[in-house]
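Late entry, evening session. Most of the bench is empty. Finally got around to the prediction I had been postponing all week. Sequence below, unchanged from the version circulated by S.P.
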Amino acid sequence: MTKEIQPVPGAMTLAEMKEFASFGSATQRYIRRSLDVGLERADAVETWSRDVVEAASIKAQISLYKRFPDIRKAIPKDCAIESIEAFMPALISLAAYDLGQGRISSFPAFRFLYERLLGPDSRPWLPGAFCAAASLPHLHPKTRKGLLQSISEAAATAPGWSTREPSFFPEWVEKVDVSKTAH
């Protein structure tokens, strides 16, 4: 009798942290901000806005992200075409918004964010939503090319998806003045 090897929960969290650390600082900031907005964790405008333009952008994101509860409820249970009609257009629309902000520059970053916003049941649908949103004409052709080239063949053609909940949800971290703590 062979024993099935189960992944160590701490190892999975560490892998998620390493993946997050591999993203650029603007992407990390946008993911943390988006999680605050989408999961209603904090006052995103107060936490993240550095000026009136960014405050307006966050307020627009808050308005758009109000769709997430309905999108979560509409995640298809099967692959029947009629079951995706209430889900995919709304998901593609939000994905197009996020990609249009210029901070999510790859499929791994998009997947990282959306797995946390929607949960593991959304995983089978994320490659299609990403490719659809990345193909839309509101993005510059070079941006579209870079986004579409960022999705690996393995991600685009996966035969199955994990149902494991994400465990690492990055948050705002206050800056520490190290000159005051060096004593």
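Two things to note before I forget:
Residues 9-181 form one domain.
The two ends are 59 Å apart (CA to CA).
Will write this up properly tomorrow.
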